[in-house]
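Researcher: Sequence recovery benchmark, item below. Answer with residues only.
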């Protein structure tokens, strides 16, 4: 039985905040989540998201990481303070382990890379903490693991190229070339 047709246990408060600056995606996801029983509120900017959290903190949130006016992690922090029991999923088109770790450390329940469909998002929102994800069908390549490690160290060094290069025992220009490239598959 699919998540769309299953009777979902959303609890007494099915409020859901969707934050994304991609309007077509936001509208599609909003309709899909309403069909699943959520009471959806949309926000297209960090400022709108923060205002929605202040007005009435939702029980659930799906937040884009990178928006035109800032970082979705600001809204994660505000929501976690306003409502500690909220279930928060961070979405991004720039999937990297470092940002996933940062999102989870400040209170996100889960982290999904775009494109994620409504069923994946609902599963992440409603997953119990003891549930373990299935092993990946297509694990990361060695090149991708290396790239992810470099990205993590780079984030931990506050995006300081010289410090990252020193810690990785790598020439600074080599590191800059790696950081300028897209992530390997």
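Model:
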């Amino acid at each position: 039985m699919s998540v769309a047709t299953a009777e979902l246990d959303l609890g007494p408060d099915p409020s859901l905040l969707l934050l994304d600056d991609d309007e077509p995606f936001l509208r599609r996801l909003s309709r899909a989540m309403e069909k699943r029983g959520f009471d959806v509120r949309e926000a297209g900017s960090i400022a709108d998201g923060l205002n929605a959290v202040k007005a009435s903190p939702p029980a659930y949130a799906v937040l884009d990481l990178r928006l035109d006016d800032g970082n979705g992690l600001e809204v994660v922090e505000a929501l976690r303070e306003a409502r500690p029991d909220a279930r928060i999923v961070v979405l991004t088109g720039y999937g990297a382990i470092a940002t996933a770790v940062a999102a989870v450390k400040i209170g996100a329940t889960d982290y999904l890379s775009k494109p994620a469909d409504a069923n994946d998002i609902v599963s992440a929102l409603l997953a119990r903490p003891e549930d373990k994800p299935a092993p990946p069908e297509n694990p990361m390549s060695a090149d991708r693991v290396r790239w992810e490690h470099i990205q993590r160290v780079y984030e931990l060094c506050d995006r300081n190229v010289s410090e990252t290069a020193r810690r990785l025992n790598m020439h600074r220009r080599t590191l800059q070339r790696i950081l300028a490239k897209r992530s390997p598959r």
